[in-house]
Amino acid sequence: MHSFLPAKRWLPLLLAPSLAAAPAWAQHTVIQAENVRYEYAQVLRAEPVYQTLRATSMVERCEQSSMVSPEEDEERRGLSRVVGAVRDVLTPGRGDQVEDGDEDCRMVPVEREFRRPIAYDVDYVVRGVKYRSRLPNDPGNRLRVKVAVTPVVPGGGAE
User: What are the alphabetically sorted keywords of the record (predicted)?
Assistant: First the structure.
């Protein structure tokens, strides 16, 4: 008499050859992700992008206090100003001395502004097509670019 094996026993024996072939089948269907090549693009323009920084510092400002009226001060400007300048140059240490009551000094805030380039907006051409990228440095006349070509496979999810 023939005895039949229950389905639980013969099903794995039927599937074993197909499972053994699966790794070999997967090896033949490996698709290269992309084709990559490096070229040089012609740079059309590189425009710096600036960061503006502001800093406030306290500086001492002194003004000469004058007991003279504005009309008298106007008369003293010409010759006496020249004589005073010559006297200050010829008298050693005179320019460094401050006589009490001659100057009114106070601390005033002075705001300074600094600009520094932080990046470059670069326009360039690759195979007749214009592109723009923001780069950390000025590339000069030529820019090395990576040209990658990836096939679009229908039903592959990437479109």
Answer: Signal
